[in-house]
Amino acid sequence: MKEKKQAGQSTPASVDLISNLFKDVMDLILVRLPVKDAVRTSILSKKWRYKWVSIPDLVFDKNCLTEGASERECAHVVDQVLLNHVGPICKFSCTNYVPSCSHIDRWIAFLSRNGIKKIIIAMNVLGDLYDVPSSIFNCQELYHLELHLCTLKVPPTFKGFENLLVLDLDVYISDGHARWKQNVSMSEDHIAFLIAKCPRLERLKLITSAFHHCLNIHAPSLRCFEFDGQFRDLSLGSSPLLTNMSMYSILPPSYWDILEESSTCSLARFTEYSHRLERLALKGCSLQYFLAGELPRKLSATYDHLKYLEVHIELNSKEILATLCILRSSPNLKELKIKYLSNDVDERFNLTEEEASFWGAKIQFDCLLNHLHAVEIIGLALSMDLEFVRYILSNAPVLETMKVYTYEYLEEQEVSRIKNELMRFRRASTRAEIIYYGHYKENKEGW
What we know:
With about 450 residues, the chain is of the alpha/beta class. It has ten helices and 15 strands. Helix 4 links the parallel strand 2 and strand 3.
């Protein structure tokens, strides 16, 4: 017997599933879509028509644009989204977008009145630097701020970002020692003042264009610090919670005519404010900025908490001694990464006899590597490089893996010689495995 279908009763095939999703599910879908696609959901049904106007995260990048869009069209997209938006805006990101600075000024002023919590602005590398307006300092609910290829001036009346946890600055610094022309800038004092006014700051990344006489960081809650730049002195004495630190310098101290005698930065002084580190990376030429004065055999304050160490070194005995000094002072190290630096093809091979024999009778490798599990060596080319590998293998009883990359310009015959020697080295750990990954090729896009 067939039952008569009541009027308005729908069959399973006709149910509008997408309109009957729970609100939480709709919100989850929208926050995972680019802004352009989120706006397009308005055509799905009546229930979806105005859902997009309340999305909390607004990200404007190349994916928001149609190919060949003009500056006016790009600005119009953002204007319309902000004009129609309802509710709080948690995140605003504008990266590699076309609009001019005047448009962004207007948007920041709008955001400062709407409780914005996260701002990311990264200008196009080929464009002009963006002079951030003072209205950004009115964003008192910010917990995350990223400014790339921008200039910033901190007003003396600035009371601080009380809630800021993450600060990422890529700013241009005006300095008399700089050998290229700078634009409107953020001074050293402005940087120090801004950081000091962020009492809850936990993560700080600072990329600067020029030389710092003294980089003063006063951040009592700081846990992670990344720095890309050059300096004569560094002070982090008021950051007792610091556990993760990465330093990078593309230019050596000699570029700025800094003599060791004129610098007050040393490994011994460095450990005074970094002895609680769990991860330390000294990349590029940054190690050279900590070589002032006489190098101790072992640091007075040991790195008892250090688990990961990355060091980039050039072929000179003082950097090698500094690296060994850190190793002797890191009894609980688990991961080690060493990268040999050289910008000149011939530099790797034209060593003086003194430097070439340095690893022989002139050095005592007495580092305790009882907890070392993983090692990565980049840029192997010479006998002195292999000596370092040999010492590690013979002094690391729990070592599990050693990853090895050879120097980019090394000939195949030399590669074979290095691989054969590596296999003959005595290993303190029966589980130690040496893995050869071929020539190392520099990543040109970043550090």
